[in-house]
Amino acid sequence: MALYTRSSVFHSKATTGVVATVAAVSLFALAGCSGGSEAVSSAVPTNDIAVGEFPDYYPEDYQDLVDAAEAEGGELEIYSNTDQENWAPVFRDFQKKYTWVTDISANNLGSDEVFQRELSEQATGNAPADLLVSNATQAWADFAERPDTLLEYTSPEIPELPDFAQVLPNVVAMSMDPQTIGYNTALLTDAPTGLSSLADTVSANPEQFKNMVGVRDVTGAFGYTMFYYLTQARPEAWDSLAKLLPLTRPETSSGTLTEKTLAGEYVASALITAAPAFPTVRDSDGLFEIVLPDDGTVVIPRGIGIASTAAHPNTAKLFTDFILSEEGQQAILEGGLASYREGVESVPFAYSYQDVVKEVGEDQVILAPYETADDATVAEFTSKWDSLLAK
Amino acid sequence: MSTITKTETPPVSRPPAREFPAPRYRRILGADRSSIIFYAVIVILAVLVLAPVVPTLYQSIRDKPLYDAGGIFTLDNYVRLFTEANFGQVALNTLIFALLTTVLAIVIAVPMAIVVVRTTIPGRRIFGAAMQWPFFISSLILGFGWITMYGPAGFVSVEVRRILGFLPWDLYTLAGMAITEAVALAPIAYVFCANALRNSDASLEGAAQTVGAGPFRILFSVIIPMMRPPVVYSSLLVFSLSLETLSIPLLYGQPVGINVFATFLYNNGLQSIDPDYGILGAASTIILVCTIALVAVQAKLLKDAKRFVSVRGKATRPRLLDLGWLKWVSVVLISFYVIFGALIPILGLVARSFTKIFTPLQNPLLSLTTNNYATILQYPVYIQSIKNSLIVASVGAVLVSVLATVAVVIARRSPFRYRKVIEYLALAPNALPGLIIGIGLFWAFSFIPLGGGALIQGTLWAIIIGFGIRALPSAYGSISPAAMQIGDELDQAARVAGADWLRVFLRMLAKLLTPAFGAAIVLTFVVMMKEYSPAIFLGSADTNVIGTTMLELWVQGNTGSVAALATFQIAITAIFVGIAGLLMRGKKDA
Question: Which residues pair with A105 in a beta bridge?
Fold first, then answer.
């Protein structure tokens, strides 16, 4: 089909005008962004990195591992579902600790897509990923069950961490992400404190709030995880859901729920992972807020594991140890993810696991385990959920 | 007495006549060098076109993934496609979507073509030029723009909802998809109809005027009936394009679970942990059958349609019809389409890239920022995807244009026995949807023995090949008319002087075709810049292009970064076309 072949495209004045305007705009944009990220607020504690020093509980021959990693070339490839903003302080500090690390690329895929891509790449013999990061609990469990997918490694940091750190053999948690309720302060003046309080508020006025509440879609693995373990630990949540679900619309990611709540399409959304929501909380100047549900906060570990086909396995081991170390956990919190090691200093616009425990109380924290879901359980949960949705 | 003086011609000393022997061309393996080029080109084209298709057909009748050993032939995939995977509903959705899009696109394009080309409305030049905007903006970006402005959380929608209390439209439906796709595809129909109108014979209308027909009579009795062929042809084109389109159905249909052909492939290929390749292959085969059938019908119609365009010996200028007060109505309607269909969504997207918060609930001007651009330029992953797009588009444009030029000259100006086959092969990728090229090549690469596929799969070359296959018909179609304009006698004169085909090509045709070659490079660059669907399957995490990165970010909800990347893509395209236009101004003819 011979489209747009007429040279009038080049000669028309309108095109020249468009070109001039767009060129000016892009030059302005490029000139305007000098030097990247906004100034980190002074309330963020600086992370001191000890170069060349290791804690005394590390094995004696740890330096051999460092040398072997340096010989690999200083590159690292990560498949994760984590934002670049969350990774940035972690990479910065890892490169401070090991100055010969020059290139870390974290590719932002969907939480299930991480494994799907890795499996198909391992099957075709061309798998460049070194580390896999995802908070999809069932996908992780399924992936780890398959033979020869993960490298065997136990970090020396494990004894220094709480016992829920090792979520699966060869898979360790790098953060513990709380799931929150987000709401639009302009549209929902009655701020919710938890799932039942939100359900009460909106069900008191069904015509006003019909289709105005966002809910994470349970047909996706992540949504299923958060709500399944919530209702397992708190059966009374089903009552709140019975009031809430008829007024909701499902969405497939925290980011979408956040954007739509901010824009006013939804007055509130449940449940949104805290880490991707915080930048919006910070930027919206009070229009969008998140709250930890006081009647049960689901906390989902974000697992990290080394691929068996990793091209840089020793660098990957160093990275895993770093992530679990004091310095690494501080960097993780600075990036906005929920660190869980004791002794990490608080950071504004980020929840650490300790902050969550302090706010809702240890008995209201619900940890999601890394286990596969069998079809019967999934079907039972989903049919109960759908029956409430349909009302 | 004779006054005529006899002039004595002085003896001319001529150099002795030299023998100019016939040029001797080296023969390799008994074949002359031109034949080698002919066969090489046809083999390259055949491999490029068949590489995605054959593995797809093969996969559809195997019960295991291709790269798994063992596995038997089975038709079970087709059965499961309709029972388990609910493909029947998908096919129905696609049919409805394509029909709606076609009707809307024709309804927009045909009156606009008539009014802009053949009547005296003011601002005809601007409207004609404004219809070129899809050249710069891919339908993915248009979809982002529409959702940002008219989606349920869009700027315009929230404002309307505040004023009216409810939102009178829902973008996330088949109808919503069809409207946006129609806006994206209407310019294609417009170009065909406008060309046909410009080439039509004015003497027919002059004849109508001599028997007393007014402008409306001429319009309805002469002009519109003569437009039947371009309207039919462009409807078919729009229909087949909307059958295979991915962007708009992906953005609008995913949140509400409406699937068409392309999103069915997308979902079943990437979303599950264990993709069912058999179903994928079966679905791809069925889709291929539909698209190939449509392209065959188009080809047949184009042959017939050419007979309608009447080009007479006398030059005539079509008269412009004066519609009276109706012309103001037309101006309003056209402006409405241009402003609300294209301008507002795109400007809204650009504006979104400069704000942190983009909702009428809070004044956007309060949160102006260049942070979105800073984010893009700060993280190496995003800079890499911009770089990748540029590399793929520029390298690919050159390679594809070279291949297309050679193919055109062989198909039109050579004694090769299979030159018709070359033409069909070069135009065949019109029938291959982008996703199927991606899936098919992914399987083809896993087939190459000795792990050769691993060398290509996941590198930029795989993407260049995938996008290049998509862009080949456009390049071919833009060079072909230029080649046909060069008179045969030039070839024959060269032949008489002893040149073989290759020398004719290199010494003469290539130089005469250089402007068309340049235009093809620009066209192919733009096409490959906007392309992204083959990369979904062919790319690895390192070889993202702008389109796939935008999609990833959109799914995560980072609308600001998406808007910034989209503005980048528009800017790159516009700057490139502008520079190319300046360089080529006045050099239209060699």
Answer: A77
Beta bridge partners of A303: A134, A173
What span, in angstroms and rounded, lies between the C-alpha atoms of A53 and A67? 14
Pair A149, A241: CB distance under 8 Å: no
Which 3 state secondary structure label does DSSP give A268? strand
List domains and CATH numbers for chain A.
62-176+300-367 (3.40.190.10), 178-297+371-390 (3.40.190.10)
B493: tokens are 């004169």
Angstroms from A11 CA to nearest CA on chain B: 7
Which stretches within B61-173 are classed as H helix?
76-83, 87-118, 124-130, 139-150, 155-164
How many domains does chain B fold into?
Answer: 1
SS3 assignment, position A388: helix
Tell me the helices (H) and strands (E) count for chain A, helix number first: 16, 11
Which 3-state string (H, E, C) describes B461-497?
HHHHHHHHHHHHHHHHHHHHHHHHHCCHHHHHHHHHC
Residue B552 lies inside a defined structural domain of this protein: yes
**Residues of B with Cβ-Cβ distance to A15 under 8 angstroms:** 129, 132, 577-578, 581
Q: Is A199 exposed, middle or buried (0-12, 13-18, 19+ CB in 10 A)?
A: buried
Residue (of A51, A86, A67) closest to A276 by Cα position: A86
- What the block records as the tokens of A138 is 């069932």
Strands B27-28 and B31-32: antiparallel
Q: How does DSSP classify residue B69?
A: S
B388 located within any domain: yes
> Is the model's pTM score more than 0.90?
no
Looking up residue B425, the CATH number of its domain turns out to be: 1.10.3720.10
User: Which amino acid would we find at residue B209?
Assistant: Q
Distance between CA atoms of A221 and B476, rounded to whole angstroms?
46
What residue in B sits closest to A186 (Cα-Cα)? B361
Q: Which domain, by its residues, includes B433? A: 371-438+455-590
Interatomic CA distance for residues B469 and B477, integer angstroms: 14
pLDDT in tens, chain B (590 residues): 567 777 777 777 776 667 777 677 777 666 678 888 899 999 999 999 999 999 888 888 888 777 666 778 888 888 888 887 788 999 999 999 999 999 999 999 998 998 888 888 888 888 888 887 877 888 999 999 999 899 887 889 888 888 888 888 888 899 999 999 999 999 889 988 888 888 777 788 888 889 988 888 888 888 888 888 888 888 988 998 999 899 999 899 877 789 999 988 888 776 555 677 888 888 889 988 988 898 888 878 777 655 444 555 555 666 787 778 888 888 898 899 999 999 999 999 999 999 887 877 777 777 788 888 988 888 888 899 999 999 999 999 999 999 999 999 999 888 888 888 998 899 889 888 888 898 888 888 877 766 666 677 778 999 999 999 999 998 998 898 888 888 888 888 888 888 888 888 888 888 889 988 998 999 999 999 999 999 988 877 778 899 999 988 887 778 888 999 999 999 999 899 888 888 877 655 44
Minimal Cβ distance to A283: which of B357, B553, B580: B357
User: What does DSSP say about strands A248-251 and A213-216: parallel, antiparallel, or unpaired?
Assistant: parallel
Residues of A in contact with B552 (CB under 8 A): 108-109
Q: Are B396 and B464 in contact (CB under 8 A)?
A: yes
- Determine the distance in angstroms separating the CA of B417 from the nearest CA of chain A, rounded to an integer: 25
Interchain CB contact of B521 with A (< 8 Å)? no
Query: Which residue, chain included where needed, has tokens 């004595």?
Result: B8
Tokens of B69: 């050993």
Nearest partner of B223 among B253, B251, B201, judged by Cα:
B201
Token pair for residue B139? 């339908």
The Cα A383–Cα B402 span in angstroms is: 58
